[in-house]
Amino acid sequence: MSITIKTLTASALLCATTGMSAQTAPEIAADEKYKSLETLARGLHYLETMYVDENKVKEPNLVQNALKGMVDQLDPHTTLMPPKAFEQLTIDTQGKFGGVGVIVSQEKGKLIVVSPIEDTPAARGGIKSGDEIIEIEGHVVTNLKNDDAVDRMRGEPGSKLKLKIRRQNIAEPITIELVREIIRVKSVRGQSLAPKFGYVRISSFQEGTGEELGSILKDFKSKDGISGLILDLRDNPGGLLDQAVQVSDLFIESGLIVSTLGRDKDRVEREFARKRNTFSDFPVVVLVNGGSASASEIVAGALQDHERALIMGTTTFGKGSVQTILPLPDGSALKLTIARYYTPKDRSIQAKGITPDIVVPLKTADESPSPKPKSERPETIRKESDLDRHIESRDLSDLAKSQGLTQWIDQWPEPMRSDNQLVTAFSYLHSYAKLDRKEKADGKKEDKAPDRQKEKATTK
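Above: the chain sequence. Below: its structure as C-alpha coordinates.
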Protein backbone atom coordinates (compact mmCIF):
# COMPACT_ATOMS: atom_id res chain seq x y z
CA MET A 1 0.00 0.00 0.00
CA SER A 2 1.47 3.33 -1.05
CA ILE A 3 0.84 6.38 1.16
CA THR A 4 1.45 10.00 0.32
CA ILE A 5 1.92 12.19 3.40
CA LYS A 6 1.35 15.92 3.15
CA THR A 7 2.78 18.35 5.66
CA LEU A 8 0.13 19.30 8.22
CA THR A 9 0.24 21.11 11.52
CA ALA A 10 -0.59 18.97 14.53
CA SER A 11 -3.92 20.77 14.99
CA ALA A 12 -4.88 20.28 11.32
CA LEU A 13 -4.03 16.60 11.61
CA LEU A 14 -6.23 16.40 14.70
CA CYS A 15 -9.15 17.91 12.82
CA ALA A 16 -8.56 15.58 9.89
CA THR A 17 -8.70 12.51 12.09
CA THR A 18 -11.69 13.54 14.17
CA GLY A 19 -13.97 15.29 11.65
CA MET A 20 -14.80 12.29 9.46
CA SER A 21 -17.97 12.09 7.34
CA ALA A 22 -19.55 9.07 5.65
CA GLN A 23 -16.84 6.73 4.36
CA THR A 24 -16.52 3.83 1.98
CA ALA A 25 -15.52 0.35 3.17
CA PRO A 26 -11.85 0.71 2.08
CA GLU A 27 -11.63 4.06 3.87
CA ILE A 28 -13.03 2.53 7.05
CA ALA A 29 -10.50 -0.31 6.85
CA ALA A 30 -7.69 2.21 6.43
CA ASP A 31 -8.98 4.22 9.38
CA GLU A 32 -8.92 1.12 11.57
CA LYS A 33 -5.40 0.26 10.47
CA TYR A 34 -4.04 3.73 11.24
CA LYS A 35 -6.36 4.56 14.14
CA SER A 36 -3.36 4.98 16.43
CA LEU A 37 -2.38 8.04 14.37
CA GLU A 38 -5.14 9.88 16.21
CA THR A 39 -3.31 9.22 19.47
CA LEU A 40 -0.11 10.60 17.96
CA ALA A 41 -1.96 13.63 16.56
CA ARG A 42 -3.57 14.41 19.92
CA GLY A 43 -0.24 14.08 21.70
CA LEU A 44 1.48 16.40 19.23
CA HIS A 45 -1.36 18.89 19.52
CA TYR A 46 -1.23 18.95 23.34
CA LEU A 47 2.53 19.38 23.37
CA GLU A 48 2.46 22.08 20.70
CA THR A 49 -0.28 24.15 22.34
CA MET A 50 0.13 23.56 26.08
CA TYR A 51 3.76 22.78 26.99
CA VAL A 52 5.27 25.51 29.19
CA ASP A 53 8.32 26.21 26.96
CA GLU A 54 6.95 26.76 23.45
CA ASN A 55 10.44 26.96 21.93
CA LYS A 56 11.01 23.28 22.74
CA VAL A 57 7.84 22.09 21.04
CA LYS A 58 8.02 23.64 17.60
CA GLU A 59 6.40 21.39 15.03
CA PRO A 60 9.53 20.35 13.02
CA ASN A 61 11.34 19.29 16.20
CA LEU A 62 8.31 17.39 17.48
CA VAL A 63 7.97 15.44 14.25
CA GLN A 64 11.70 14.67 14.10
CA ASN A 65 11.77 13.50 17.71
CA ALA A 66 8.65 11.39 17.22
CA LEU A 67 10.19 9.66 14.20
CA LYS A 68 13.50 9.26 16.00
CA GLY A 69 11.70 7.62 18.90
CA MET A 70 10.17 5.11 16.51
CA VAL A 71 13.41 4.03 14.85
CA ASP A 72 15.28 3.93 18.16
CA GLN A 73 13.19 0.88 19.06
CA LEU A 74 14.41 -1.04 16.00
CA ASP A 75 17.82 -2.50 15.14
CA PRO A 76 20.97 -0.41 15.71
CA HIS A 77 21.51 0.14 11.97
CA THR A 78 18.09 1.75 11.41
CA THR A 79 18.46 5.44 12.26
CA LEU A 80 17.05 8.86 11.50
CA MET A 81 19.79 10.96 9.97
CA PRO A 82 19.64 14.73 10.46
CA PRO A 83 20.22 16.79 7.30
CA LYS A 84 23.88 17.38 8.16
CA ALA A 85 24.54 13.68 8.77
CA PHE A 86 22.76 12.72 5.54
CA GLU A 87 24.85 15.17 3.57
CA GLN A 88 27.97 13.80 5.23
CA LEU A 89 27.06 10.21 4.40
CA THR A 90 26.78 11.14 0.73
CA ILE A 91 30.31 12.51 0.92
CA ASP A 92 31.52 9.42 2.82
CA THR A 93 30.53 7.00 0.08
CA GLN A 94 32.49 9.15 -2.37
CA GLY A 95 35.63 8.66 -0.28
CA LYS A 96 36.04 12.11 1.28
CA PHE A 97 34.77 13.47 4.59
CA GLY A 98 35.78 15.55 7.60
CA GLY A 99 36.59 14.19 11.05
CA VAL A 100 39.11 11.92 12.75
CA GLY A 101 38.61 8.75 10.68
CA VAL A 102 37.03 6.22 13.01
CA ILE A 103 34.20 3.76 12.22
CA VAL A 104 31.98 3.02 15.23
CA SER A 105 29.07 0.74 16.03
CA GLN A 106 26.59 0.74 18.89
CA GLU A 107 26.52 -2.56 20.77
CA LYS A 108 24.25 -2.96 23.79
CA GLY A 109 24.37 0.72 24.59
CA LYS A 110 28.14 0.94 24.13
CA LEU A 111 29.98 2.78 21.37
CA ILE A 112 32.57 0.35 19.99
CA VAL A 113 35.28 1.10 17.44
CA VAL A 114 34.85 -1.22 14.46
CA SER A 115 38.04 0.11 12.92
CA PRO A 116 40.16 3.23 12.52
CA ILE A 117 40.61 4.25 8.88
CA GLU A 118 44.17 3.95 7.63
CA ASP A 119 46.38 7.06 7.72
CA THR A 120 43.91 9.22 9.64
CA PRO A 121 44.15 11.01 13.02
CA ALA A 122 42.39 8.06 14.69
CA ALA A 123 44.83 5.48 13.32
CA ARG A 124 47.88 7.64 13.99
CA GLY A 125 46.60 8.49 17.47
CA GLY A 126 46.44 4.86 18.55
CA ILE A 127 42.71 4.08 18.32
CA LYS A 128 42.24 0.31 17.90
CA SER A 129 39.46 -2.02 16.81
CA GLY A 130 37.45 -3.08 19.85
CA ASP A 131 38.06 0.12 21.84
CA GLU A 132 34.97 1.42 23.64
CA ILE A 133 34.50 5.19 23.40
CA ILE A 134 33.05 6.32 26.74
CA GLU A 135 33.39 10.10 26.46
CA ILE A 136 33.50 12.62 23.59
CA GLU A 137 34.72 16.06 24.66
CA GLY A 138 33.68 15.28 28.23
CA HIS A 139 30.20 14.11 27.23
CA VAL A 140 29.33 10.56 28.33
CA VAL A 141 28.17 8.64 25.27
CA THR A 142 26.31 5.77 26.94
CA ASN A 143 23.13 4.96 25.03
CA LEU A 144 23.82 7.57 22.34
CA LYS A 145 22.73 6.51 18.88
CA ASN A 146 25.57 5.80 16.48
CA ASP A 147 24.92 8.82 14.26
CA ASP A 148 24.69 11.20 17.24
CA ALA A 149 28.14 10.15 18.37
CA VAL A 150 29.56 10.45 14.85
CA ASP A 151 28.14 13.97 14.59
CA ARG A 152 29.85 14.95 17.86
CA MET A 153 33.19 13.67 16.59
CA ARG A 154 33.04 15.68 13.39
CA GLY A 155 34.03 19.30 13.21
CA GLU A 156 36.17 21.93 11.51
CA PRO A 157 39.54 20.70 10.17
CA GLY A 158 42.28 21.75 12.60
CA SER A 159 40.03 21.66 15.67
CA LYS A 160 40.88 19.28 18.50
CA LEU A 161 38.82 16.34 19.70
CA LYS A 162 39.31 14.66 23.07
CA LEU A 163 38.14 11.07 23.45
CA LYS A 164 38.16 8.82 26.49
CA ILE A 165 38.28 5.13 25.64
CA ARG A 166 38.18 1.84 27.51
CA ARG A 167 40.48 -0.87 26.18
CA GLN A 168 40.41 -4.57 26.93
CA ASN A 169 43.01 -5.75 29.47
CA ILE A 170 43.77 -2.16 30.54
CA ALA A 171 42.28 -1.17 33.89
CA GLU A 172 42.15 2.63 33.56
CA PRO A 173 40.44 4.55 30.70
CA ILE A 174 42.77 6.13 28.15
CA THR A 175 42.41 9.76 27.05
CA ILE A 176 43.40 10.48 23.45
CA GLU A 177 43.46 13.93 21.86
CA LEU A 178 43.16 14.11 18.08
CA VAL A 179 43.16 16.92 15.54
CA ARG A 180 40.35 16.80 13.00
CA GLU A 181 41.21 16.94 9.31
CA ILE A 182 39.65 16.29 5.91
CA ILE A 183 39.61 12.53 5.54
CA ARG A 184 40.38 11.31 2.04
CA VAL A 185 40.01 7.57 1.83
CA LYS A 186 41.69 5.59 -0.90
CA SER A 187 39.73 2.37 -0.76
CA VAL A 188 42.22 0.06 -2.52
CA ARG A 189 45.97 -0.19 -2.10
CA GLY A 190 48.23 -2.77 -3.73
CA GLN A 191 51.90 -3.75 -3.69
CA SER A 192 54.19 -6.63 -4.56
CA LEU A 193 55.29 -8.97 -1.74
CA ALA A 194 57.67 -10.96 -3.94
CA PRO A 195 57.95 -11.70 -7.67
CA LYS A 196 54.49 -12.87 -8.84
CA PHE A 197 52.94 -12.52 -5.36
CA GLY A 198 50.68 -9.52 -4.79
CA TYR A 199 49.06 -7.90 -1.78
CA VAL A 200 45.87 -5.81 -1.98
CA ARG A 201 44.16 -4.08 0.91
CA ILE A 202 40.58 -2.79 0.64
CA SER A 203 39.86 -0.36 3.48
CA SER A 204 36.17 0.26 2.59
CA PHE A 205 33.70 -0.38 -0.22
CA GLN A 206 32.92 2.96 -1.83
CA GLU A 207 32.20 4.21 -5.33
CA GLY A 208 34.79 2.79 -7.76
CA THR A 209 36.28 0.15 -5.42
CA GLY A 210 35.66 -2.68 -7.90
CA GLU A 211 37.25 -0.74 -10.75
CA GLU A 212 40.26 0.21 -8.61
CA LEU A 213 40.87 -3.42 -7.67
CA GLY A 214 40.48 -4.59 -11.27
CA SER A 215 43.03 -2.03 -12.40
CA ILE A 216 45.56 -3.15 -9.75
CA LEU A 217 45.13 -6.82 -10.68
CA LYS A 218 45.63 -6.04 -14.37
CA ASP A 219 48.79 -4.13 -13.48
CA PHE A 220 50.13 -7.07 -11.45
CA LYS A 221 49.41 -9.47 -14.28
CA SER A 222 50.99 -7.32 -17.01
CA LYS A 223 54.25 -6.87 -15.07
CA ASP A 224 55.26 -10.24 -13.61
CA GLY A 225 52.12 -12.33 -13.77
CA ILE A 226 50.36 -13.55 -10.61
CA SER A 227 51.18 -16.79 -8.80
CA GLY A 228 49.20 -15.82 -5.70
CA LEU A 229 47.36 -12.92 -4.08
CA ILE A 230 46.58 -11.83 -0.53
CA LEU A 231 43.35 -9.83 -0.25
CA ASP A 232 43.34 -7.96 3.08
CA LEU A 233 39.84 -7.12 4.38
CA ARG A 234 40.82 -6.69 8.03
CA ASP A 235 39.18 -3.73 9.79
CA ASN A 236 37.10 -3.05 6.67
CA PRO A 237 33.70 -1.84 7.98
CA GLY A 238 31.87 -2.44 4.67
CA GLY A 239 30.10 0.06 2.45
CA LEU A 240 28.29 -0.26 -0.85
CA LEU A 241 26.69 -3.62 -1.65
CA ASP A 242 27.17 -3.31 -5.42
CA GLN A 243 30.92 -2.82 -4.93
CA ALA A 244 31.14 -5.98 -2.82
CA VAL A 245 29.45 -7.83 -5.69
CA GLN A 246 31.90 -6.33 -8.22
CA VAL A 247 34.92 -7.31 -6.11
CA SER A 248 33.63 -10.89 -5.71
CA ASP A 249 32.90 -11.07 -9.45
CA LEU A 250 36.57 -10.37 -10.20
CA PHE A 251 37.53 -13.74 -8.70
CA ILE A 252 34.50 -15.97 -9.39
CA GLU A 253 33.74 -17.15 -12.95
CA SER A 254 30.13 -18.20 -12.46
CA GLY A 255 27.47 -18.91 -9.88
CA LEU A 256 25.77 -17.06 -7.07
CA ILE A 257 27.58 -14.28 -5.19
CA VAL A 258 24.98 -13.13 -2.66
CA SER A 259 21.24 -13.39 -1.99
CA THR A 260 19.14 -10.77 -0.24
CA LEU A 261 15.76 -11.43 1.35
CA GLY A 262 13.53 -8.62 2.56
CA ARG A 263 10.02 -8.49 4.02
CA ASP A 264 8.52 -10.41 1.10
CA LYS A 265 9.68 -13.97 1.76
CA ASP A 266 8.76 -15.04 -1.78
CA ARG A 267 11.03 -12.47 -3.40
CA VAL A 268 14.70 -13.35 -3.16
CA GLU A 269 17.11 -11.11 -5.07
CA ARG A 270 20.28 -12.79 -6.29
CA GLU A 271 23.54 -11.48 -7.74
CA PHE A 272 25.52 -13.77 -10.04
CA ALA A 273 29.12 -13.79 -11.26
CA ARG A 274 30.08 -13.30 -14.89
CA LYS A 275 33.09 -14.92 -16.54
CA ARG A 276 34.24 -11.80 -18.39
CA ASN A 277 37.31 -10.07 -16.85
CA THR A 278 37.61 -12.71 -14.13
CA PHE A 279 40.95 -13.47 -12.44
CA SER A 280 40.58 -17.15 -11.62
CA ASP A 281 43.95 -18.74 -12.43
CA PHE A 282 45.84 -18.12 -9.18
CA PRO A 283 45.26 -18.91 -5.47
CA VAL A 284 43.93 -16.25 -3.09
CA VAL A 285 44.19 -15.87 0.69
CA VAL A 286 41.69 -13.46 2.28
CA LEU A 287 42.63 -11.92 5.63
CA VAL A 288 39.73 -11.01 7.97
CA ASN A 289 39.22 -10.09 11.62
CA GLY A 290 36.57 -8.77 14.00
CA GLY A 291 36.62 -5.42 12.23
CA SER A 292 35.66 -6.98 8.88
CA ALA A 293 31.95 -6.22 8.52
CA SER A 294 29.03 -6.12 6.09
CA ALA A 295 30.34 -5.84 2.50
CA SER A 296 33.65 -7.40 3.61
CA GLU A 297 31.73 -10.41 4.87
CA ILE A 298 29.84 -10.68 1.58
CA VAL A 299 33.16 -10.98 -0.29
CA ALA A 300 34.73 -13.36 2.23
CA GLY A 301 31.60 -15.53 2.34
CA ALA A 302 31.29 -15.72 -1.45
CA LEU A 303 34.93 -16.65 -1.99
CA GLN A 304 34.78 -19.18 0.84
CA ASP A 305 31.60 -20.87 -0.41
CA HIS A 306 32.98 -21.11 -3.95
CA GLU A 307 36.27 -22.46 -2.53
CA ARG A 308 37.96 -19.72 -4.53
CA ALA A 309 40.01 -18.46 -1.58
CA LEU A 310 41.36 -19.54 1.76
CA ILE A 311 39.92 -17.34 4.52
CA MET A 312 42.45 -16.65 7.29
CA GLY A 313 42.49 -14.60 10.49
CA THR A 314 39.76 -14.34 13.13
CA THR A 315 35.95 -14.43 13.02
CA THR A 316 34.37 -11.40 11.34
CA PHE A 317 31.99 -8.83 12.82
CA GLY A 318 28.68 -10.49 11.85
CA LYS A 319 26.60 -7.77 10.19
CA GLY A 320 24.32 -9.65 7.82
CA SER A 321 21.78 -6.95 7.01
CA VAL A 322 21.27 -4.49 4.14
CA GLN A 323 20.32 -0.84 4.59
CA THR A 324 18.90 1.72 2.19
CA ILE A 325 18.82 5.51 2.52
CA LEU A 326 15.44 7.22 2.03
CA PRO A 327 15.52 11.05 1.78
CA LEU A 328 12.80 12.95 3.69
CA PRO A 329 11.24 16.31 2.73
CA ASP A 330 13.07 18.31 5.42
CA GLY A 331 16.53 17.26 4.20
CA SER A 332 16.95 14.46 6.71
CA ALA A 333 16.94 10.79 5.75
CA LEU A 334 15.89 7.44 7.09
CA LYS A 335 18.57 4.76 7.05
CA LEU A 336 16.41 1.68 7.03
CA THR A 337 17.25 -2.03 7.28
CA ILE A 338 15.37 -3.63 4.40
CA ALA A 339 16.86 -7.10 4.00
CA ARG A 340 19.13 -9.83 5.24
CA TYR A 341 21.84 -11.18 2.99
CA TYR A 342 23.03 -14.75 2.56
CA THR A 343 26.21 -16.31 1.17
CA PRO A 344 26.06 -18.56 -1.93
CA LYS A 345 25.44 -21.60 0.31
CA ASP A 346 22.51 -19.78 1.98
CA ARG A 347 24.44 -19.03 5.17
CA SER A 348 23.34 -16.06 7.23
CA ILE A 349 26.25 -14.49 9.08
CA GLN A 350 24.05 -12.10 11.11
CA ALA A 351 25.46 -11.92 14.67
CA LYS A 352 27.68 -14.93 13.84
CA GLY A 353 30.26 -13.72 11.34
CA ILE A 354 32.42 -15.62 8.86
CA THR A 355 34.58 -18.25 10.54
CA PRO A 356 38.02 -18.44 8.88
CA ASP A 357 39.24 -21.66 7.30
CA ILE A 358 42.44 -21.15 9.26
CA VAL A 359 42.27 -19.20 12.54
CA VAL A 360 45.35 -17.03 13.08
CA PRO A 361 45.09 -14.58 16.01
CA LEU A 362 47.05 -11.38 15.64
CA LYS A 363 50.13 -11.18 17.86
CA THR A 364 51.27 -7.81 19.12
CA ALA A 365 54.10 -6.84 21.38
CA ASP A 366 51.83 -5.65 24.20
CA GLU A 367 49.85 -8.93 24.12
CA SER A 368 52.86 -11.19 24.59
CA PRO A 369 52.81 -12.72 28.05
CA SER A 370 55.83 -11.62 30.06
CA PRO A 371 57.84 -14.44 31.59
CA LYS A 372 57.58 -14.93 35.33
CA PRO A 373 60.46 -13.59 37.42
CA LYS A 374 63.08 -16.22 38.17
CA SER A 375 62.12 -16.10 41.86
CA GLU A 376 58.60 -17.34 40.99
CA ARG A 377 59.71 -20.31 38.86
CA PRO A 378 60.46 -23.80 40.16
CA GLU A 379 64.20 -24.25 40.67
CA THR A 380 64.22 -27.35 38.44
CA ILE A 381 62.95 -25.44 35.38
CA ARG A 382 65.45 -23.49 33.35
CA LYS A 383 64.69 -21.79 30.07
CA GLU A 384 66.67 -20.24 27.27
CA SER A 385 65.80 -16.80 28.62
CA ASP A 386 67.63 -17.65 31.88
CA LEU A 387 70.95 -18.14 30.10
CA ASP A 388 73.45 -15.30 29.99
CA ARG A 389 74.01 -13.78 26.55
CA HIS A 390 71.00 -15.63 25.08
CA ILE A 391 70.00 -14.64 21.56
CA GLU A 392 67.02 -12.27 21.43
CA SER A 393 63.90 -13.79 19.89
CA ARG A 394 62.24 -12.61 16.71
CA ASP A 395 58.85 -14.08 15.84
CA LEU A 396 58.34 -15.21 12.26
CA SER A 397 56.15 -17.90 10.78
CA ASP A 398 57.90 -21.28 10.88
CA LEU A 399 56.63 -21.84 7.35
CA ALA A 400 58.31 -18.64 6.23
CA LYS A 401 61.60 -19.71 7.77
CA SER A 402 61.53 -23.19 6.28
CA GLN A 403 60.65 -21.90 2.83
CA GLY A 404 63.39 -19.30 2.77
CA LEU A 405 60.92 -16.42 2.47
CA THR A 406 62.70 -14.14 4.92
CA GLN A 407 64.62 -12.50 2.07
CA TRP A 408 61.33 -11.08 0.79
CA ILE A 409 59.69 -10.43 4.15
CA ASP A 410 62.71 -8.44 5.33
CA GLN A 411 62.11 -6.04 2.44
CA TRP A 412 58.52 -5.28 3.46
CA PRO A 413 57.89 -1.97 5.21
CA GLU A 414 56.76 -1.90 8.82
CA PRO A 415 54.25 -2.74 10.18
CA MET A 416 53.89 -5.41 7.47
CA ARG A 417 57.06 -7.25 8.57
CA SER A 418 55.69 -7.62 12.11
CA ASP A 419 52.21 -8.66 10.98
CA ASN A 420 52.12 -12.38 11.84
CA GLN A 421 48.78 -12.87 10.03
CA LEU A 422 50.19 -11.44 6.81
CA VAL A 423 53.42 -13.47 7.13
CA THR A 424 51.41 -16.65 7.70
CA ALA A 425 49.14 -15.89 4.72
CA PHE A 426 52.16 -15.29 2.49
CA SER A 427 53.72 -18.58 3.64
CA TYR A 428 50.56 -20.57 2.89
CA LEU A 429 50.16 -18.85 -0.46
CA HIS A 430 53.74 -19.59 -1.45
CA SER A 431 53.39 -23.23 -0.36
CA TYR A 432 50.20 -23.67 -2.37
CA ALA A 433 51.67 -22.12 -5.50
CA LYS A 434 54.78 -24.28 -5.18
CA LEU A 435 52.70 -27.44 -4.67
CA ASP A 436 50.45 -26.54 -7.60
CA ARG A 437 53.45 -26.12 -9.90
CA LYS A 438 54.81 -29.50 -8.78
CA GLU A 439 51.46 -31.22 -9.37
CA LYS A 440 51.22 -29.76 -12.87
CA ALA A 441 54.77 -30.84 -13.65
CA ASP A 442 54.11 -34.37 -12.36
CA GLY A 443 50.91 -34.48 -14.39
CA LYS A 444 52.79 -33.70 -17.57
CA LYS A 445 55.30 -36.48 -16.83
CA GLU A 446 52.51 -39.00 -16.31
CA ASP A 447 50.85 -37.94 -19.55
CA LYS A 448 54.06 -38.55 -21.47
CA ALA A 449 54.90 -41.88 -19.84
CA PRO A 450 52.22 -43.99 -21.60
CA ASP A 451 53.32 -42.64 -24.98
CA ARG A 452 56.91 -43.72 -24.38
CA GLN A 453 55.86 -47.18 -23.21
CA LYS A 454 53.62 -47.54 -26.25
CA GLU A 455 56.49 -46.58 -28.50
CA LYS A 456 58.75 -49.26 -26.91
CA ALA A 457 56.07 -51.88 -27.28
CA THR A 458 55.64 -51.03 -30.92
CA THR A 459 59.34 -51.26 -31.74
CA LYS A 460 59.52 -54.71 -30.23
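The CA atoms of residues 86 and 333 lie 6 Å apart.
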